Amino acid sequence: KAGVTQTPRYLIKTRGQQVTLSCSPISGHRSVSWYQQTPGQGLQFLFEYFSETQRNKGNFPGRFSGRQFSNSRSEMNVSTLELGDSALYLCASSLDGGPNQPQHFGDGTRLSIL
Amino acid sequence: DAKTTQPNSMESNEEEPVHLPCNHSTISGTDYIHWYRQLPSQGPEYVIHGLTSNVNNRMASLAIAEDRKSSTLILHRATLRDAAVYYCILSLPNTGNQFYFGTGTSLTVIP
Questions:
Q1: Shortest CA distance from B30: residue in chain A
Q2: Rounded Cα gap, residues B31 and B100, in angstroms
Q3: Is the pLDDT assigned to residue A37 strictly greater than 90?
Q4: Within chain B, which residues score under 50 in pLDDT?
Q5: Residue A79, C-beta contacts closer than 8 angstroms, at least 6 positions apart
Q6: What is the mean pLDDT of residues A20-34?
Q7: Considering only CB atoms, which chain B residues are within 8 Å of A32?
Q8: What is the per-residue pLDDT for A75?
Q9: What gap in Å lies between CA A109 and CA B24, rounded to an integer?
């Protein structure tokens, strides 16, 4: 069974640009969550999508957005990139996001802002 | 935030058992206790989870205190591949996959 796939693995951008990251969940999983990991702040929840709807959102500015497609694949977008957006962005999937379900994480996209 | 408290770091000798503690004094009756671990350059990996009773799987055991205010992840025989950061997380109902990761416990396994 294929795991969670995130593309690309590495990305370099400059300040002011925008970026789109992609996540393919495990087949049959309908809940997809995104996290940002930095050395200073650790792992922080960005948002969760279920059935193409954003269901939960963390404390991040509106520059961070996402969407989910009918096949449960998800994308997140960051506009007007800042140096502080340099981080590992992780995607996780589960069947429906219930508290009794494990989350399965991808290996992330490492975004570097120059 | 659903708060958990873990030691910053622990050491264990290879092939010995490891007990990783976690305090979650504000836990509610419907909150599940999850454990994940993260190896360098990888995403977090699910280890085990439970609600009230102790749980066992092929990776580890989870011992939950009777009052549920603390839990312990038990690795029965530590190997070098178990060196990782271990996170104890409370999973709340109606929050989707909104996990609050703390700083976790960095486990060093000594050969």
A1: A99
A2: 13
A3: yes
A4: none
A5: A18, A63, A65
A6: 97
A7: 97
A8: 98
A9: 31
